[in-house]
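Marked as duplicate of an earlier ticket. Keeping the data here for the record.
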Amino acid sequence: MTLAKPPMPIVPPLENGDRLTRTEFERRYQAMPHIRKAELIEGVTYMASPLRIRSHGEPHGNLVTWLGTYKTFTPGVILGIEPTVRLDPDNEPQPDAILMIPGGQARIDADDYISGAPELVVEIAASSAAIDLHDKKRAYRRNGVREYIVWRTLEGQLDWFRWQADEYITVVPEEGIVRSQVFPGLWLAVEALLAGDMAAVLSVLQRGLGTREHEEFKQSLPVSPGT
């Protein structure tokens, strides 16, 4: 007599607003490979809407150009674009970009996901400003993300938050420039970025890359093979 095989368990679809554990969120997300981006924020599932070019795609590209140039001249730092971050049991975001220091706050798991809080997180906030500036910000602060950038593209504003004494303070540009305390030499000409003047943005960044602080930081980093 041939025994019937038990039916395969059906994985429920991932839906906006689902309240899930991180384990269940990952199970459903992995069962739906056609979904490009879904996040678990404070235990609630958020799924991305289609992205517009001027309010998200182009600003994202400009920020990646800035961060990618920094990485090019700072061998050893880890730049990630929309990586899954296992932040804590209730939060698994996919930030628009992150910068990590090897051996720092976060690690890369055996299955190639980030666990813990990257040192720098960047979000492009067009329609998602309420999430990025409230629930996400609270989760990033609680987990000790040391610098958090939110570019509110529809409002033409950029917020740079710095983790200090368990709270986020807003960093005010000095002479139009914000200088990272975590990544020496990572300088941002805020008004130039908002205006789309990437030549000026990269010119200011090159000034930061030429400082003694950046050289000392670069020498302190482990260099990955092939860099």
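See parent ticket for discussion. The longest helix spans residues 53-72.
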